[in-house]
Design brief:
The chain has 137 residues and is mostly beta strands. It is built from 1 helix and 11 strands. It has a 6-stranded mixed sheet with strand order 1-9-8-7-3-4, with no helix packed on it. It is globular and about 45 Å long. The N and C termini lie far apart (75 Å).
Length: 137
Amino acid sequence: MRTLLLLFSVVLFLCSCEKDCYNPPQPIIFEFVDESGNNLIENGELTNMTVQEDMGNGNFTGVELTKTNDHKVILEKVGAFDGERPYKFFSNINVFDFSIKSSRFTAGCEGYQIKSIVFKNIQVTDEKVYYKIILKP
């Protein structure tokens, strides 16, 4: 009886953990620089910025942005969807569009993974951990 109770407890524990298992998409990080490579947040030129997510049917929602200690910006809570969504970046220096393609995570836990980010009308370098974006006034 004791063995059966222990086995039942382990099975119940594993089942409950699987339901609570969630993998959020990897963070998207932007660094904004000028043509000479100077960080525009660090030097004080980039003072105002917002990102809007196009939810369809003319509805837009703001994306939370977090500045890091090394003068980059993390886009919070993006990519948790299956498909492609357009975004628009606004700042005191420049405006540009980009889109995020994301899909369900299929290995192990439930979640989403960002497949690609496509930028329009802006020069960008993929630095593997972040995107270096050149803003020109």
